[in-house]
Design goal:
By secondary structure, the protein is mainly alpha-helical. It contains eight helices and four strands, in the order αααββαββαααα.
């Protein structure tokens, strides 16, 4: 006696249809999003590593923003230091011309203009923060004053605001650098020298017109002092240039790390579209075959065998 038993085949083909539908849906979603999964659960045991990688990538993104801001800040600092060096050079040239011509015509104006340039340079700001404002960074680190006002004071202590220590910032993992020196450290030697010139003038007569022997001797003695101030400022400007170079290199390193990490994340998250297309085709074939078998089994009827 032949038995007609289609129970197992019936439910096997139904399961095949369901699996084919699930595989097609997954492949279609991956083809649409070009991602392995829409959330971390879809990555299984790789989810932990992927989450760690994404967290680090976000940290690199934040650091990239900080470094870009530091680069822009360094440009403002370089401009301020360049103008300060130009001011010192202007004062030095004024003294040299006065000594060469034995005449102080134009010297007073040159020194006052140099001080005005230093006023601006010392209080340079980037994004509301004083470049030479130390770790506090707000407000003006130098209180501007005319040469006459400075000369009337016992010293320039009152013109320099306490800015705390020089500011430090993290530019790489476990690596920080010291940013700009404070305004007093950079510019006080020049301001004090300008003040001392006006104090001398008040006691010995202005350095205008034809210079006396005493005035000429004094001016000649000022030239090497001004040269020393200039050398000091140039050296500290070079330090700032070195810091700017470190920031530039940190930007390059951070960008390279981020690009490599994002590529690694992409390798985990992104699908191979050719492989997805192959799986989609296989799932469609599976679905169609299971559906065909299911249709055939569904149409079977025992009455056909009882007639």
């Amino acid at each position: 006696m032949n038995r007609v038993a289609t129970y197992n085949q019936f439910f096997g083909s139904a399961a095949g249809i369901a699996l084919g539908q699930a595989n097609m849906a997954k492949a279609q979603e991956q083809a649409s999003t070009q991602k392995v999964a829409g959330d971390l659960q879809g990555f299984g045991i790789e989810a932990g590593r992927l989450l760690s990688a994404k967290t680090y990538a976000e940290r690199l993104d934040r650091r990239a923003e900080t470094l870009k801001a530091l680069e822009a800040r360094a440009d403002v600092e370089a401009t301020a230091l360049d103008s300060a060096q130009a001011a010192v050079q202007q004062a030095r040239d004024g003294l040299a011309n006065a000594a060469a011509n034995q005449n102080g015509a134009g010297l007073k104006a040159a020194l006052e203009q140099a001080l005005s340039i230093i006023d601006t340079a010392a209080n340079a700001q980037y994004n509301g923060e004083a470049i030479f404002g130390g770790e506090w960074g707000y407000g003006e680190p130098f209180v501007p004053a005319s040469l006459d006002t400075l000369a009337a004071q016992p010293n320039t202590d009152a013109n320099w605001v306490d800015t705390g220590r020089n500011r430090t910032v993290m530019i790489e993992d476990n690596r920080s650098i010291e940013l700009s020196r404070n305004a007093e450290d950079l510019f006080r030697p020049f301001v004090d020298l300008l003040r001392s010139i006006r104090v001398w003038e008040n006691a010995n007569g202005p350095l205008t017109g034809k210079l006396t022997t005493a005035q000429l001797t004094y001016v000649q003695g000022l030239i090497p002092q001004m040269a020393a101030v200039q050398t000091n400022l140039i050296d500290k400007s070079a330090e700032a240039g070195s810091t700017a170079k470190q920031i530039e290199m940190a930007v390059t390193t951070n960008d390279a790390k981020r690009d490599t990490l994002l590529a690694t994340i992409g390798d985990q998250e992104n699908v191979d579209l050719a492989e997805v297309a192959a799986r989609l085709s296989a799932a469609q074939t599976q679905y169609q075959a299971s559906a065909a078998i299911f249709g055939q089994l569904k149409d079977l009827n025992l009455l056909q065998y009882l007639r």
